[in-house]
Design a protein that fits this description.
Elements lengths: L1 E2 L2 E2 L1 E2 L5 E2 L34 E2 L6 E2 L2 H6 L6 H14 L4 H13 L3 H14 L4 H13 L3 H25 L6
Antiparallel strand pairs: 1-2, 3-6, 4-5
Helix pairs in contact: 2-3, 3-4, 4-5, 5-6
InterPro entries: TPR-like_helical_dom_sf, Ycf3
Pfam families: TPR_11 (PF13414)
Keywords: Repeat, TPR repeat
Length: about 170
């Protein structure tokens, strides 16, 4: 299951959860293991470390934000701390800022969330996620012009990506 750029890994009891992204800081594939320098926000699960065997009763290795926002314990500050730690480890990974922005929203800090979305967009301006998320937040706050700009940009990026994908794979758009 994929949640944005975060991974929730469904697994059988006793198996290991993959918690690293496929890409290291050097651009190489990790193959499911990672050192602390290669740790990404996708490693934010309710288990410490990188490659761990989960308890037999765990059905899903979830990022803390998903775990906490799903109503399990509503400890958003833990998610916020995890994303802040991920950003400290790799400040060039936009998904850390996007995740922290979500946690900030859930904590009732929309200004901090807007700042994190802005950081994510600066790092990865071609990702529709940051634009769409910030646009939705602007809309909720009544800043309709800013919302329209961000949502239109997210839509442009998505349409362009679809055209590239269909063209590269010989798929007809009609």
């Amino acid at each position: 299951m994929s949640l944005g750029s975060f991974r929730a890994t469904h697994r059988s009891p006793g198996s290991s959860a993959r918690c690293c992204s496929n890409k290291t800081t050097s651009g190489n594939s990790t193959g499911g293991t990672c050192s602390s320098k290669e740790w990404r926000p996708s490693a934010i699960i309710n288990q410490p470390g990188c490659q761990r065997s989960l308890p037999a009763d765990a059905d899903l290795a979830e990022p803390r934000l998903v775990h906490h926002s799903a109503g399990h314990d509503r400890e958003y500050r833990l998610a916020l701390a995890d994303f802040s730690r991920a950003i400290a480890i790799d400040a060039t990974d936009a998904s850390g800022y996007e995740g922290r922005a979500q946690a900030e929203i859930l904590q009732g800090h929309p200004e901090a969330a807007l700042a994190d979305y802005a950081s994510a967009i600066r790092i990865d301006p071609k990702s529709p996620y940051g634009h769409a998320s910030r646009g939705n937040l602007y809309f909720e706050r009544g800043s309709y012009a800013f919302a329209a700009r961000d949502l239109a940009r997210a839509n442009q990026i998505t349409i362009f990506a679809k055209r590239i994908f269909t063209s590269a794979n010989g798929i007809s758009d009609t």
